[in-house]
User: What shape does this take?
Amino acid sequence: MKNQEGVSRRDFIRATTAAGATAAFTIIKPQSVRGTAANDAVTFVWIGAGGRGTADAKGLTAAGGKIIGVADVFKDKLDAARQAFAVEQSACFEGFDAYKKVLDLKADAAILTTPPGFRPAEFTAAVAAGKHVFMEKPIAVDTWGCHSVLSDAEKARTMKLSVVVGLQRRYSKAYQEAQKRIASGALGTIVSGRGFYLTGDVWKGRTWARAEFPDDLHWMTKNWYYFRWLSGDLITEQNIHNLDACNWLLGRHPERANGYGGRKWRKYIGDIFDHFNVTYEYPGAVHLTFMSGQFCTVHDSSEQILGNDGSFTNGRGGAKIEGKNPWEWTGGEDDASRNEYEAFIASVRDGNPRTDAQHAVEGTFTTILGREAAYRRKEVEWKKLWDEKQKLERKAYGVS
Assistant: This one.
């Protein structure tokens, strides 16, 4: 697949693999990298001060960062962030274009944690401003956005900017060890796999009424999860954790997908589905079945990869391999989120940029492939969908 500016996926992988070799993941205490956290803080501007963003801001500051500017659409979120992180009032900006203003501030890095429909434009601006980037998953909600992020990721690479994406499994020591063992043949010939993300209703069914907001754009942004153009649907916004991990374990992305899904019960707002059932076909006729839903009374976020010599499982029981080459993680504490924050801070301080954007684009597009197969109720091929450069547009919705 090729991005908008002629950088081929093959060339990008070759470049990022080389870069990744020098930026191999190592957990380092922030104070031991250079100086101390107090006198050598990595400075951040922060765009999107919601719940996930607040968790990331706390984690990055604990790892050795300092928030010096904030942007958000909503004043209450902005005020809360300003007070929690002691940010000067003059460095806080409100509105849909506030990200442009905060990126003008002098800082080392940017945290991008707005609804993912806004992510590509904000990533473009952050790279243009010369900022290292920590951004949440998914990196886009459509094919157009994936093309955009892939192009800007190449610019970031040439500018030696570090890019980390919030896909925590990639920073789990247990998962890293399992991936190495699988790549070395611990499962024998891989035949198939399966994944689940079954959970309850997002935000426990909470919504905000249209009458509370001045226009549709503010209303939708407050209720962003429920709209495809802002969240990408649950398979993209949430299930990317599982599907990106499956790509990583299988060493490639799928070639095509068939799927089903629908709005069986969550019909009270928006246009996203409440469940998906997708079968992906990977090179070599390896098939992965994936089921997700946000209606369940149980919680199951897990992956299983099956080979003729064994199986890998990651779930409530932790990461383990069973069969001819058994293995189970016994390495002690493994806080993947903290590992991720510390790796980003270390990469900025050391000048060894991380290059997460490539696998994040592939992981995001894997979810889009499954989503479109379910929407269209037919087989969809990776290359054909990639070449469509589909862009999800905002549209009017009925309000009850």
